[in-house]
Amino acid sequence: MSEPRPTDAKINSDLLGPVNKPGPGWYATVTVSGLVVLAAVGALAYQFSRGLGVWGINRPVFWALDITNFVFWIGISHAGTLISAILRVTGAEWRRPVTRCAEAITVFALMIGALFPIIHLGRPWFFYWLVPYPNERGLWPNFRSPLAWDFFAINTYLLGSIIYLYLPLIPDLALLRDKSRGLLRRFYGTLSLGWRGTQLQWDRLERAVRVMAVVIIPVAVSVHTIVSWDFAMTIRPMWHSTMFGPYFVAGAIFSGIAALILAMAVIRRVFHLEGYLRPVHFNNLGLLLLTMSLIWFYFTFGEYLTAWYGNAPEEMAVFRSKVSGVYAPLFWGTVVCCFAIPAPLLAIKRFRTIKGTMIASVLVVVGMWFERFLIIVPTLTQPRLTFNWGTYKPTWVELTLTAGTFGYFVLLYAIFTRLFPIIAVWEYKEGLPLGEHGEATVVSQPEVGFESA
Amino acid sequence: MTDEHKSNKPQWAMVIDLDRCTGCEACVVACRVENNIPTVGPEEAAKGRSINWIRVERYFEGEYPDVKVKFMPVLCQHCEEAPCEPVCPVYATYHTDEGLNAQVYNRCVGTRYCANNCPYTVRFFNFFDPVWDAPLEKALNPEVSVRTRGVMEKCTFCIQRIRKGEEKAKDEGREVRDGDVVPACVQTCQTKAMYFGNIADPESEVSKLSKSNRATRLLEDLGTKPRVIYLNKGD
Amino acid sequence: MFDTRAEAVAVLRELQRDGVPGSSISVMSSEPLHLEINDAPKTRIAGYAIAGGLLGVAFAILLTVWTSRRVGLVTGGMPIVSPWAFGIIVFELAALGAILVTFGRMIAEARLVRRNALTDYDKSVADGRIAVSVRCSDDFHREIAEKVLGSAHQSYGSLQDSSNAE
User: Which CATH superfamily is domain A12-131+140-431 in?
Assistant: First the structure.
C-alpha cells in the first residue's frame, strides 16, 4: 500500500471514537446483555437457595452443562494467547490491530470460565477450601487432585492474562489521560502509572511484553491441558485417553480463534473500524481457523478410531451412543459444524471473506460447545456396571446460566470497549511506515504474503 | 502403587456369597434405616437421584421361559487403591489405617469428582436437603450424622458399629474378635450370604472365605484392589 | 518539542556528539521510535524473570511437600509426596513467579508509579509530537544542551519552548 500514513490525530480520533462517543448500538447491546445476565443471576440465586437438585444432573451424570460451560469458556480464552503471544514472538506484523481484541477476550472468557468451579459445587460457600491457606485445623488442599491443579493453572493464567492485557494498555491509558479532563483524567492517570513515553520506558515495556509472551504460551498450553486432565486422569471409558491434553488445547485454540473473528467482525462494523480491521486480518485468521479445524478433525478421528478398533465393551458402549445412538444427531452435527462446513468454506479463497469467516466462526463456536458436551455427558451416562446407566436432560436453570455466560461476556466486552481503545493505538502506529520526513527504518505494512480479498 | 501401609489394626473386608443371595433387598432396607439415608421421593428417584448405599443389581439372562436372574449386591468396595480418593481436591475422602475408604461429610464441598471416578458407581450425592416426613424423623439413628445437601455419601462399612465393636473390645482388654462387628446389611441378610471381618486375621471367616476357589472381586483388572469379595460359582 | 522523527533524531545525534550522556536525555513519543541512544542503562528484566520463576519453583515445592506431609492422609495408594502431581503445581507457580516479577521489575526500571513521574511532559506528545528533554547535572552539559536545543528550536521553528534544561 502506498497511501501516506494517516495523521496521528486521525488515528487517535478513529480508535478513541468508541470510547468517547458510543452509538445507540452500544446502549442496546449493554441493555440486552445486562438483562440476560440478570436472568442468570436470578437462576443462580434460586440454585443456591434450593440446591443443585434444580439442575438436571443426577446419578450417574454428575457433571453436565456446568462443566461443559467451564471447559468451553476456558477454551475460548485461548484466543488471546495464540494471537497476541505467538504472533508477537514470531514478529508477525499483521497482529497489531488484533492483539488487544484478543487479549480482552482471554481475560473475560477466563473470568467466566473460572466461575463454574465455584457455582457447580454442592457447597459453594466453602469454595475457598481449595485455596492453600494456613488454618488452625491444619487442613490443606489435596495437590494430587486435578481440580487443585485447575485452581493453580487458571489463576496463574488469569493473573498473567490480566497483566499481559494491562502492560500494552499503559501507553494507551496515557493517551486517554492526555485527552480527557476531570475525573476521567484522574482515572486514566492513575491507571497509566505516570507513563511519559520516554524511549527507556518503551524499551522496558516492549521487553517485558516479550518476556510475558514467551512465558504465557506454555501457561496457556498447560491450562487447557490441565482442564482436559480433569477427565483424562479418571478411569472412565473414553475419558482416560493420553491424547486429551493436545486434543483439548487444539480445540481451545480452535474455538478461541472463532470467537476472535466474531468479536473483530462485530467491532469492525459497530465502531466503523473498516480501515484498521481489514480483509487481510480476516483472511489470515481464517487460514488459522482452517488449520485448527483440520487439527481438530485429526484428533477427533484418532480418538474415535482407536476406541472403535480396540473394541473394549465399556468404550464401545459410549462410542455407539455417540456415533449411532441417542447422541448421534448432536455428534454428527458437531462434525458438520466444526469441520464439514467450515473447512471447505475457509479453504476456498473466494469464500474466505469477512462474511465467510464469520459464518464459519459461528458454526465453530456452536459446534465446539456441543463437542464439550459430548465429551462429558455420554461417558457419564454409561458407567461400567451397566445396571447404573442413566440419561440426562438439562433444566431451565442450567440453560439460563449458559445463556447468562454469553450475556456476561458480551456485557464485559462492551464495557471494555467503552473504557479503553479496542485497537492498541501505539502498537498500530508503530507498525505503520513513517511519513515523508523520517527514515523508513520501521517495519513494513501489515500485508504479509496474502492478497486482500 | 506404593507398598502396603503396614498396620496392626484390623483390616476390614466383606464377603458376599452370590450363590446364596436371593435378591430380597433386606440389606438395602436395613442399611437405610441404620445410616439415616434419605428417601428422595418418586420424582427425584425417576430422575436417578435415589440413594442406596447398598443396592442389589439384577441382570437377566436368556429369554422366557429359560430366564436366569443374577443378583449382585453392590456397595462401596473400600478399594485399597481407591480411584475416588486422589481426585478429591479437599481431602474429603481418604484411606484409613484400617483399610476403610472414609468420607468426611464436613469437609466435602461437593465437586462430585469422586463419584465420577468410582468404577462401581457406589457414591451418592445429596441434591437437595433430606426430608423425613413426620414421624419418620423419630427413627433416625443418633449414632450416624444426617447429611445436608451438597455433600457426597456412600457405604462406610457401618463405621459407627466398627467403632463400637473396637471400643467394647478395648474396654474388655482384648483384641477385636470375629463377630464383634456386624454391619447392618450383614446382620439382616436372611440367607446368611454376607460376612464381615478382619481379613488380616487368618482365623476370621472372611479371611478363610477369601481363599475359596469361588472367590472373585468386581472389576479386578482395574487394579482398585477392592475389599469386597464375591463368592460365585457362576451358575 | 518536535514534529517529526527526523528532527528529533538529528537533535539527539548532535547532543550525543557534543558529549551529553545518553542516560540523561529523554525522548518522549506516543509510539516507540527505536532510536539508538548511547549509554542507555542496561536492563535486567530477563534475569529477574528467571529469578521469579525459580522463586515460584521453590515456593511450590515447599508448599506441596510440607502440606501433604503435614496432612499425611493416604489417597488412592499414591505416595504422600507425589512428585508427578506436585510437579504441575511447581510449573504453574514458576510461571506465576516469572510473570509477577517481570511486571514488578518493568515498573521499577521504567520508573513508573512515582510521584513526579510526569515531569517534562507535554500533552501534545499524544498527538504525535516528540519531546526531547535533558537532565543536566552540571553547567557544562547544561550549556551544550541549551545550545543544541536552542538552535534546533530556531531551525525547526517548534511551537513550544518546553525544550529546557535544568
Answer: Formate dehydrogenase/DMSO reductase domain (1.20.1630.10)
